[in-house]
Design brief:
It comes from Antrihabitans stalagmiti. It is built from 6 helices and 5 strands. It is α+β, with helices and mostly antiparallel strands. A hairpin with a 3-residue loop joins strand 4 and strand 5.
Length: about 200
Amino acid sequence: MRYTRAIEKVRTLAEACTATAAIPGDHYFPLNEVYVFDELLDGPESLDWVQIALVVDLPDTEVTWGRQPDDAYAVVYPLRLDKGGFSYFWRSHEQQVANHFIREPVRIWSKEDGIDDEALEALKEKRFGDIPRPAFDKALLADELAATLKHLREVSDEYWDSKWRRAHSGNGRYPENTLRDAVFGYLDLLDADQEAGS
């Protein structure tokens, strides 16, 4: 997609976040913030997809790296993230957003402040230096690696338990997805940790 189309998609996403968060009643929408990162922030003429980080109101033990939260459908479906154009990654509100993969992200929406029009306008005009961008604190990499290993062990221990398998099936997901995500998250962070020389 062209860069201008990508920016339109990002604004539409931010507007959908605001509209979905405002639905009254018992509607559950655990999203706290949305960030864009990676290729979009280089201002290319075209790109394959927009990479986003979704910060959810869940503890970090439920949102280890590579893991899709159990309540992900409450975010993915109303925002139509499954329709293409976005590559998305989950972060807990208890974690720093930036990590070894999500580098210097730009916040475009938050539950507290709504749409960040200044950031979106700066992105549109490719004024990347005018946008606040949190840096990755490498000191936290070891903690995140330990959390992903703990999650992988839990998935491995429970994988063949029929009750666990039922609880991890539905909404287009299967136990195999949970295992794959746990393996990916751990190995990806292990590689990042070794590259960092920890």
